[in-house]
Amino acid sequence: MESILKTRELTIDFGGQAAVSGVSLEVPKHQFQSIIGPNGAGKTTLFNLLSGQLQPTHGTILFKETDITHLSPPLRTRMGMGRSFQITNVFPNLTVLENVRLAVQSSAGVRFNFFSALSRFKQFEEEAVHYLKSVMLDGKRDSLAKHLAHGEKRKLEIAMLLALKPELLLLDEPTAGISIEEVPAILDVLRGIKEQGDKTILLIEHKMDMVLDLSDSVTVLFNGKLLASGSPQDIMNNELVQSAYLGGLYDDAS
Ligand SMILES: Nc1ncnc2c1ncn2[C@@H]1O[C@H](COP(=O)(O)OP(=O)(O)OP(=O)(O)O)[C@@H](O)[C@H]1O
């Protein structure tokens, strides 16, 4: 199967301590792959390396067969790698629709040009509504972003990410910080994106049970190292993984 992303021996040290150590992974195109691991396993650091927020001490990253190890985050985005927005990138006093329209506009390269933006306004708006429907948030299109519930904000972030038309989505704990009642709706959104079949999804999750039925494959990080990789079933039955999660080493407090 064709890979969209490969890392070789990816490593980063912070003051002599390796937060990510010798990680070689391969993400096949159009798959849903999850990266799981307990607190401090190195998941977010790995994402920061993939998206270019951090530079590795050692190792390489190939995206669509191109070495992107030293490319800036915006160049990676332009190549088709999209990392979920943090909520700080959402304009709280704009409506949900306006936020997504701005993301569509930014993806189309229309910036600071009032007249060309105006002439294409309707087209951008239609596209924005399409993304809002994909995340099941079109009913809230006229609400101010600041009035959304946490789970709805997550959906808005995902809609804004989709508006950038990424081929690979990097999703960092999309269910973190939301109420337990809102979790199924987010998982439905992810399932919907997966079923459309044209995206590759790499998702970080702290809680193993959250992603097992959505994932085509699961990679487990532990102490910065790749502990295991395989189908959800393989991972569930893997003794090393069980001891990492269940052997008293795993802090499930967060
Ligand atoms: N900028 C940094 N400077 C020093 N140490 C760091 C830095 N960023 C991360 N670390 C350390 O690297 C290790 C991995 O952290 P990371 O946040 O990647 O883990 P994680 O798997 O995402 O954990 P969580 O599930 O709690 O978010 C931790 O020990 C953390 O303290």
TrEMBL record:
Record's keyword annotation contains Nucleotide-binding: yes
Gene3D superfamilies the record matches: P-loop containing nucleotide triphosphate hydrolases
Keyword tags: ATP-binding, Nucleotide-binding, Transport
Domain ABC transporter: 5-248
GO molecular function ontology, one term from the record: ATP binding
A Pfam family hit: ABC_tran
Keyword Transferase assigned: no
Name of the protein in its database record: Branched-chain amino acid transport system ATP-binding protein
Annotated source species: Paenibacillus sediminis
